## 1
Amino acid sequence: MNLSPQQQDALTELINIAFSRTAAALSEMTNLRVLLDVPRITLCPIAELAKQLDGFVVGEVATVHQIFTGPVSGDALLMLNYEGALMLSDMLTGGRVPSPRLDASDREVLTEVGNILLNACLGMFGNLLKVHVTFSVPRLQLAEIHALLNSLMIGSDELRHALVVYTNFRMRDNAVTGYLVIVLGVASLDWLLTALDQLGA
Amino acid sequence: MHILVVDDSAFARLRIRRLLTMAGHTVSEASNGHQALQLAAENRFDAVTLDLLMPEMDGMELLGRMRAAHPQLPMIVVSADIQEETQRQALAAGATAFVPKSGQMTALLNVLTSLPGRGVEEFVWTLLQQDAFTEMMNEAMGQAANALASLLERRVLLTAPKTEIMPVAMLHEFLERRLSGVSACIREHFLGEITGNAALIFPAGHAEILLHAVLDQTEVPGLSEIERATLAEIGNVVLNAAIARLGDQLHVRLTMGLPTVNTNQAVMPLTNLLRAGPTTMNHAIVLLSRLAVGEVHLIVYLIILLPETDIRRLLASLEA
């Protein structure tokens, strides 16, 4: 299953709006200009997700994970490699002595940033597609990629796909790359793509 | 003000605390619903901010329990969930306002200053401003009347002889004093350099009279598709004319959203609907208008919600 150019265009537009709102929130938090770059989006079967992220994911991944349920259900994830997670937390909290490990405060920061970004993206979908989804409380997980993917329970009995959004946080000449991943079963994905087609019709 | 901030995220609480203390407020914190209820029982707060997604007791449950125990306490939901339906549910559950965590959190300060009795400046028109605004809007209403006459193939007159500005927190009381109910409300969101909501409201019974006049039919109960579409089109014409004129006055280009029609509502859910969206829209301009279609004469309310800064710009431009 591939995204048509129109679907790709509609998704990019929606995510751009959500990213710009999140960037505004992060800028206000830090009093610095935060940029969230124009995303690149791909769609792949979940079995190929680890391969898709190959090279980015080495060792533990810091992931903010939220389950969403409703007419469209699935898992939403903000994935950062460990160094990226540390750097993002340092960038956002500024002035602290950088730590080699994610402490409780770093975890709080990353969880809240993930919560804002994931909700902004899925909320934007919900508003424009006229559906309402319910979110679980966000959780930060530190795990190897395979263990993480095995923990995604929603719709695990059906064929699932992942929308992968390349994400780049930029601030103070620093950049942190991550991935926003939305895992959907085929039924939810079909629903989303049909709604996107109608949006562009 | 003494404000209770409820959020399970220490980082989110810190973010809100900084904002509020810099604005001169005193802050207490609770990391969950149970703690919040206990603190609210033991202390006197002027307002509460609360997150929706929290473990154990979520924000909606807390909202209900807090509202039951403290009916007058302003409660502002501060959430990452930006879905319109979530905002609607929170407002319906008793939230005073909704501030999204994405975007500018300074909107929270605007909400606090717009709470009743919190010293929001009530704008007072000068005679010159009021005359200029009334003339401007009547020009727009005249254009809308021409467009409606062509659309409905009937003689149409539309005038807005009376205008008021008020903090949005007073809108409910204002409408409740004048309306026993609402037969139809056509809403549109507009955005661009300024963002706001606009709505055309028909008092109870008036939309049915209008539809009977223009479609020569009535369907009871509820509205048929064609009746709903007719109301949406009438609202769209009037609201577009008003907002386009407002944009011209402020020299900004505004884009209108699609019209949404709500029918047969009480005033409270209606004012909550009007307020849905960015909480910076803290002031309302209300135009009490007269609409004549053929032999039928009706009262309609045209309401425009704008941020305080844009109201100030508008008033300044009217004196230029």
## 2
Amino acid sequence: MIEIRHVRKEFDEVEAVKNVSLHIQQGSIYGLLGSNGAGKTTLLKMMAGIYKQDAGEIFIGGEPVFENVKVKQTTIFLPDALYFFPHTTVQQMAQFYKDVYPSWNEERFGKLQELFPIDVHKKIHRMSKGMQRQVAFWLAFSAMPNVLILDEPFDGLDAVMRQKVKNILVQDVAERNMTVVISSHNLREVEDLCDHVGILHHGEMLMEKELDDLKADVHKIQVAFRNGLPSLFLRGFQVLFQEERGSVLLCIVRGQKEQVESHIRKFEPLIFDVLPLTLEEIFIYEMGGVGYAIENILV
Amino acid sequence: MRSKTFLFSRSIWLQQIRNIGWIALAHLLLLLAVVPLPMIVVYTTKATNQLPTWRNIYSISGPFQGMIAFTIPVLLAIFLFRYMQVKNSADYMHSLPFRREALFAQNMVLGLAILFIPIIVTACLTAMLCYVLPIDRSILAMADVMRWTAEMGLMELFVFTASVFVGMLTGLSVLQGAFAYILFLFPTGISVLVLLNMEYMLRGFASEYYLTAKLEQIVPFVRFLELESRSLSTTEAGCYIIVTMLFTALSLWLYRKRQSEAANQALAFPILRPVFLYGVAFCFMLVGGLYFGEMTVNSLGWIIFGYVMFSFIGFFVAKMIVEKTWRVFYKWKEYMYFVAAMLVVGVIIHFDLTGYEKRIPQLSEIEQVYFGNSTARFQQFFQEEHNVSIEQPDQFLKSKENIKNVYLFHQQLIENRNTHGALQGDFRNVAIGYVLKNGDRFIRTYSVPADEYMLFARPIVESNEYKKNYYFLLHDKGVAPIRQVTIIEEPVGEKRVTLIEPKQINEFMSSLKQDMMEEKMESLVGGVGTWGMIELLQSDGDIIHVTWKKTYAHTEQWLTQHKLLSKARLTAAEVDYALVVKNKERKPLYEILGDPNSAQAQQFLQQSATLRVTNKQQIEELLRQSASNPGDALYFIAFYRSGQREPQWEVIDEKNIPSFIREQLP
């Protein structure tokens, strides 16, 4: 759905995005992770057709984005700093979106009011930050876009509202095959939402992964043997990390879960547990070898 | 298809009108307040016996209309495109499904409506008032209203498109406003600055000649204020229309090129940064040079100081604007590039590597020369002259002799490069121009020390051709037969001789003309005494006034022969005595003349050495040599006339001091 090829962008001779390529499939929720200043916002704004890339190509649905009315009519970008026309009410903004986005769904707008307890005749500028963000989501969901680009979208939302918004997102992706791109500096915030994750660091794409693959591939295991560690035990698979805690060995290995299990069982371990691995840990161990201080990137 | 309507989105209209509708309202109210309201006020107040002297709509309140025309469109441009100068709104607007062309077109159309609708409403109301109120058609007619509508609309449109254009170049609304006004002044300002500075650097450069090209006419505000007396010519209107279209096209082109992230940047296009930096430095440099040049009367050292200091200030001020920080001084290297470039230009100009100062056409190519003390008439070479001066120091000369003499003088001036620099003492301005046989023209101006001028200009000034051009009375054509001659003594004016007999007039005229033809340079360039004035009544009713100089021997002789001299001027016989005062301190005469009874004047007279002259012959000599121009001469003379208490004060030039004064009052 979204195809980015060798995109580059610089501001004042500082390269904000360097030769980034990525591919986002329709109907997926893509998490763009990175620390502050990694180039996430710049990349998203290029995807939304706000900034023009200095080099490379950006396509949504096979068409270039920049100055393309057709693509932009089905793409909505929610910036981290929201903007509404001065002195407008929710109702007026809704009218504006209705005129601007052909796919606007008035029925949905009415339905969503149950979820967002906001007076439609209230001026948006008088609202709190969190409420403004709710309005932004409300409008974006009602416009029924094919592509929704969200820059740090959950800032200022309380936990309940966050969950509501995430639910609608997932529902839209499931029902309408909507494509979502979410940027965040916090992996835990989007962990439960994304199916694909990309890490941007200093304007470069460090890695891109499908989360299910990741989780299926990497395992954290705890084993202990009666007569100490068998010498050939660790030969069979790739070990990302190992640590001895007394007689217990904690290690993170890569491989198919069944294969790993059957391999270990051959040695008749005294203790054998497969522990849950957080996404954060996977990244840290995956990246550790590359030499990046990934902990700092992911908070 | 919906896509057909994309160019104009109803919602964007609505939003923009909500944002900037107040400007339309303000525009309308202001226009109503300065045009129809004064009309109603004037014509409905009871005291209508004093009707206004309006010639057109601008007469009602021209300056206020100017203020509206030069503020509302600028404000409008700023607010219409405000969205692209603020980061959040720029991002938002450009994330919407509109092409930039569409946003631009929509804003421009809205802008035009906000400009034109109030003007048209005001015009309609004014036209209505013209009929309703008892206004004479000769004061305000429909045609005036039409003209006003067209010109006001065009001017506002011009200001609006110019402001939109600069808005595309900058990302700050404040700078958009500032740049708009700078843009209006820029063409004139830079021309004046460059021309005046060229004069410091290039000896002979006639900035005065190029400056008379009415540069102020291209400053739009100035032109607007003159609309009252002069409507826009077709050419002018055409220029404004073309420039307006150009601004619009350029704005659209720039908007499409402009990045959204330019919001909040001083300059929207990085390529403009060096242009802006060095441009500002250059302009400041010229201002600095001009300031110190005018203050120190062309002292080269100070001018260079001004260049360096002001370009330094200009460069770093521009840098601060671009980088939006005070801390810019560590970037001195970029300034040094400027200094180096200016040094090269300075060396090329100052050491005249282009040969400008030495350039002089071949003598054989010259068809006629121009010689005078200003370039004013050289300008009007091809134009018909409307005013004929009684004395014309600036003129075209065609005789071989004069061409050669002017040429020689010019060569002398080129060789004397040393006189360039600080001007002190007595200098005269000389303008030398050539009209070549191939039609080319060539003009230079110089400041020449008086001595040198007298030496080299003498053969020219004393030539018959020059004199004939100089005195209207000596022109071959233009002077109608003289019907009456009146000779009036000055400065008292109680003596008067009138000649009406044709024979006498003819004789008198021929001696006067002879005096003029024989006149020496000293007498021509001024500083000699005068007896009075000669008034010549022509057959066509016009009067020519001629100065009766003391050097006019033939005239005096004729008057003596006809026993009219004592009736025409003051003679020694009427002077009881003369008091010669030595002005050791060289005070100007007007200090004493201003109030002869003041304590200061009395003190001056008491302290100064004086000589009382009673010998009639000596008095006559003093009368002949004295002049009445108030200067700081070494000797003042007071002539005490019989029967008059107040003396007549004159001065005497050092060159003409009679020997008896030299002896008795050294």
